[in-house]
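BUG-215 | component: ligand-complex export | severity: low

The export step for 3,4-dihydroxybenzoic acid jobs runs without errors, but we want the raw record kept on the ticket for reference. Input record follows.
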Amino acid sequence: MSETSTLVGAEHFRYVAERTTREDEFLRELKRAAIAEGIPQIWVAPEQGSFMQILLRAARARDVVEVGTLAGYSAIWMARALPEGGRVRTIELEPKHADFAERWIAKSDVAGRIEVLRGAGMDVLKTFAADSADVAFLDADKSSYAKYLAECLRIVRRGGLILVDNAFAFGELFGAATREDVATVRAFNERMAKTRELQSIIVPLGDGLWVGVKT
Ligand code: DHB
Ligand code: MG
């Protein structure tokens, strides 16, 4: 804790969330439908979605790659920040999740801007051209994060962004962990911090969001 920082707690996060663009009724409905269909209740926090939109707009992003579509919630947040002609290529391994996401994306206001690509993250990423994206968002299996990062450093143009979810390891970053992938996230965080092609920082929104600029 440095002398120049305020120690933030639950009150501050509530204060931030209350002053942030909220999710709309469509995204709330998507979540209710996902729960009803037994899709895992895993999505970015609304204030994180809003922050990602701000980053995409500031970066003037047109082409976004996402690894881990799940219900399509974050893909819709991101697609809404893109200009006409922009696109999100989002990769999903689980057919049930891809089916759900495709249905809800088709009903959304950004249906023409999101492409759901089915398959394992690495298999699909390998088909993407170098420098073909402005932003990549990693939010899939944590065991492959290091490989996804290496691949996205190829795919994202210089000056582009690499965003990575779950830097806080599902809330288990410190102390004893109940999940195996907590150690994986901790190791990934060290790698991210040491990646010289990126200037990066963990933004404490949601479960911790890595934001890296490719220098
Ligand atoms: C889990 C995965 C995520 O990407 C997330 O944001 C929250 C939870 C999980 O695997 O439980
Ligand atoms: Mg996540």
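Assignee comment: Attached the raw record above. The pocket of magnesium ion (ligand 2) is lined by residues 139, 165-166 (CB under 6 Å).
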